[in-house]
Amino acid sequence: MINVRTDLVLEAREIYKANHKDEGDIDGIEVIEESEKDIKVTTVKVKNEEGSKKIGKPKGNYITIDIPDFTIYDGETMNRVSEVVSEILGRLIKIDTEKTALIVGLGNWQVTPDALGPKVTEKIMVTRHLSAVMPEVIDDSVRPVCSISPGVLGVTGIETVEIIKGVVEKIKPDLVICIDALAARRVQRVNTTIQIGDTGIAPGAGVGNNRKQINEENLGVKVIAIGVPTVVDAITIANDTIDLVVDSLISNSSSGTDFYKMLKSLDKNEKENLIKEVLSSQVSTDMIVTPKDIDLVINSLSKIIANGINMAVQPNMNMEEINKFMG
């Protein structure tokens, strides 16, 4: 199988099942599909080490929200998706209102497809400092929230997890929520999926530059990760295109011809190895692709996720009150 880069647990499960069709359901993996406000939500539970090993993802809960078509152009739909994000986060946030939440925007603000995290932090309702500054306005019903955007190693020269760990040790939050851009296996998933998980995240994973994990083990505090796939590998697009061409040739060829028999006899693994060998020599394996309207998409997605976080971490406030606070 061609080496496929994906940060989405749904895709990792699909890839495993496609390569092990005779196994049926994957042991240690539970999938639950539901609908929230007419928006599809899929929960994948990696329940044990066996399931974790098979799909290459840590044990935990991964919840995927399918964003409806044209959401980024429709404010009403954006609000509905934000409410679903808030609902999902509410299931995972199990701390009292007075506990502190730290929001971390991962990524490089200088590179648009990787700027989702920093864009989200710009829209977070930060309140941790206000109890001392505005005690007459901020009461116990408002959760103390702070946010940072630590940048990336190539810009700061500091491992992202080291910056976050230093902040965590200083302010001692009870919850960390990280937002990052991811990579998808399928073009159809790019900018159309929000994945929320409770196992942490590896910064840079979306562009194949894995850094030290940001998780409860390394920080000593619960970590929730929110990600959106904003890029896809060029080599996987080429691979899929060739597959489609072969399938089209098969469907349009006469079944008795030598050409048809040759196409049908192609061994999938041999074909994929050949594709990988040829493409690797002609196309940079580090090349990634993102849609041309990525600026608009990142702005809209950052609003959706920030609003969802704001409502989830401030359960005693509604969207109107939060917007009034944000000015």
3D structure, described in words:
- The chain is an alpha/beta fold and 327 residues long.
- It folds into two domains: 9-231 and 292-326, HybD-like (Rossmann fold, 3-Layer(aba) Sandwich); 236-282.
- 41% of the residues lie in helices and 18% in strands.
- Strands 1, 2, 3, 4, 5, 6, 7, 8 and 9 form a nine-stranded mixed β-sheet that branches.
- The chain starts with 8 loop residues before the first helix and ends with a helix.
- It catalyses: Endopeptidase action with P4 Glu or Asp, P1 preferably Glu > Asp, P1' hydrophobic and P2' Ala.
- Residues 1-7 form a propeptide.
- This is Germination protease.
- InterPro entries: Pept_HybD-like_dom_sf, Peptidase_A25.
Structural topology:
Elements lengths: L8 H11 L9 E8 L2 E8 L2 H7 L4 E7 L8 H18 L8 E5 L10 H6 L8 H4 L11 E4 L4 H4 L3 H12 L3 E10 L8 E5 L18 H4 L3 E11 H18 L6 H7 L3 H15 L5 E2 L4 H20 L5 H8 L1
Parallel strand pairs: 4-5, 4-6, 6-8
Antiparallel strand pairs: 1-2, 2-3, 3-7, 7-8, 8-9
What are its keywords?
327 residues, alpha/beta, Rossmann fold, nine-stranded mixed sheet, 13 helices, elongated, zymogen, EC 3.4.24.78
